[in-house]
Write a structure and sequence with these properties.
10 strands; 8 helices; three-stranded antiparallel beta sheet; about 40% helix; Endonuclease, Chain A; binds zinc ion; seven-stranded mixed beta sheet; alpha+beta; elongated
């Protein structure tokens, strides 16, 4: 993971060696989980699963975090940045001690309203392929404007996969009208363009994939959530193996 100096903006990668240097070599137990448990259960009060997340974060491989509780991951990351501050670890360029968590080496965190921006960017930026998965479907999001943007991408000859939950997830009375309206718009479009693959399935998956460039997955229902009332966090990753694995997962029946 990366931390950023609040004073000068310099970014520093936090890895195992850095943490060991800060905690002090003499106190480190031999096994990886041993010293992480010491460092974080002892100093910051993390146990069990959270202590294991620390190991992953400082090992640098963010794709391992797919499917984990990202709110927990981010709060653990903030605590690691706090540890640097508590131990007075100075910035190498300005010597201040004002560290903040700034992301992962090979992935970013998408939070709250940023999900909506990511959806707009994905629709405009996709060149060959676009996947959008959503646990729910609503005309609040799939409105005239959305359909126009989707159609523009289809006209550019982008192959689009929409993976959405079927009627089973939309049986409540308050959901039905918006679901039906959105579905009829998308169905019409899929009859007009063969490059639109509309897949109704029993799913709770959420995510976006843009070409082979990046994938986003987390808690956000891209095709139904307009107001973003609750906390939402997703991981945006750029690692090609993780991207193709995620694509396969979305298309598997
Ligand atoms: Zn600095």
């Amino acid at each position: 993971m990366e931390i950023r100096c609040g004073n000068c903006g310099k970014k520093t990668i936090v890895n195992t060696d850095l943490i060991k240097g800060i905690i002090g070599g003499g106190m480190i137990l031999s096994g990886a989980v041993g010293w992480v448990t010491y460092a974080f259960a002892g100093l910051l009060g993390f146990y069990g699963g959270a202590a294991l997340i620390v190991t992953v974060l400082i090992a640098g491989g963010s794709s391992v975090l797919i499917g984990k509780d990202l709110n927990l991951v981010v709060s653990v990351a903030h605590k690691i940045a706090d540890l640097m501050n508590r131990r007075n670890y100075p910035c190498s360029s300005c010597e201040a001690t004002d560290w903040q968590f700034s992301g992962f080496e090979d992935a970013d965190i998408i939070a709250g309203d940023e999900h909506k921006r990511e959806l707009c960017i994905a629709l405009r930026d996709a060149k060959k392929e676009l996947y959008i998965a959503s646990g729910f479907l609503s005309s609040n999001v799939v409105n005239e404007h959305f359909v126009q943007e989707l159609e523009a991408a289809l006209v550019r000859n982008v192959n689009i996969y929409l993976i959405v939950s079927d009627g089973r997830s939309h049986s409540s009375d308050w959901m039905k009208p918006g679901y039906k309206e959105a579905l009829s718009k998308l169905t019409k479009l899929s009859e007009k363009y063969t490059q639109l693959d509309l897949r109704l399935t029993h799913t709770h998956q959420k995510g976006i994939v843009v070409d082979d460039r990046y994938a986003i997955t987390g808690s956000f229902n891209f095709l139904s959530n307009k107001k973003v009332v609750r906390k939402e966090t997703s991981l945006k990753m750029y690692e090609s193996k993780a991207i193709s694995k995620f694509k396969r997962e979305l298309l598997t029946e």
